[in-house]
Amino acid sequence: MKGDVLLQNIKVSGLVPLSTGKKAKETKLLIREAVLTKLGKNISNVKKRCTGKPLSLSITFYLHKAKYAKKDLSGLSDVVVKILGEEMSTKKDALKGLEIVTDPSLICRIILEKNLIKKDAKEEFSFSIYEWG
Predict the structure, then answer these.
(1) Cα–chain-centroid distance for residue 82?
(2) Radius of gyration of the chain (CA)
(3) pLDDT tens digits, residue range 2-44?
(4) Which of 46, 85, 101, 118 is most deeply buried (CB count within 10 A of its CB)?
(5) Strands, DSSP E only, in the chain?
(6) Ramachandran area for residue 90 (φ above 0: left; ψ -120 to 50: alpha; else beta)
(7) How far apart are CA 45 and CA 83, in angstroms?
(8) Is 36 in contact with 90 (CB distance < 8 Å)?
C-alpha cells in the first residue's frame, strides 16, 4: 500500500545508472548532480520527510533495446538506491550519495520497470519515493 508521496517523478534524461565499467563513477556523479539540480533547496525537506520512515520506491527505465535488452533490473536499481543513500560506492574513494534514503533496510518495496526504446529516442529513468504503510 502506498502512503504519502515523499518525492514525485524525478526524471533524469540522457544517463543510465551503471554499476561497473570505466564510466560508472562519472555517471553516478552526473546522476547525483542532476537530481540535486532538480530538487534544489527542497533537498533538505525531502531528507526530513524520508528519514526513519518505511519507504516504497518506483523506478522506471527507458533504455535502448540494442544496448540494454539483457541488463537486469536489480543491477540498475541498485545504483539508483546507492545514489539516494549515504555512499554511492564502498571503495576507499567513497562517493557521497544524496542521503535521502539513509537506512536501506527501511525500503519495504521497490517497483521496477524497464521499457526498451528505439535507438533514436533519449534514454532516461525516473523515480518516485512514497511512504510505505
Answers:
(1) 7
(2) 14
(3) 678 999 999 999 999 988 888 888 999 999 999 999 999 999 9
(4) 101
(5) 2-13, 55-64, 107-117, 124-132
(6) alpha
(7) 17
(8) no
- Strand 124-132 vs strand 55-64: parallel, antiparallel, or unpaired? antiparallel
3-state secondary structure of 112: strand
> The pTM is what?
0.91
- CA pair distance 95, 4, nearest whole angstrom: 30
C-alpha cell belonging to residue 10: 524525478
Q: C-alpha 24: how far from its chain's center?
A: 14
Cell triple for residue 123? Answer: 534514454
Instruction: Tell me which residue of 92, 93, 90, 77 sits closest to 31, measured CA to CA.
Output: 77
Cβ neighbors of 24 (< 8 A, separation 6 or more) are: 18
- Do the beta carbons of residue 108 and residue 132 sit within 8 Å? yes
C-alpha triplet 56, 57, 58: angle, nearest 5°: 130
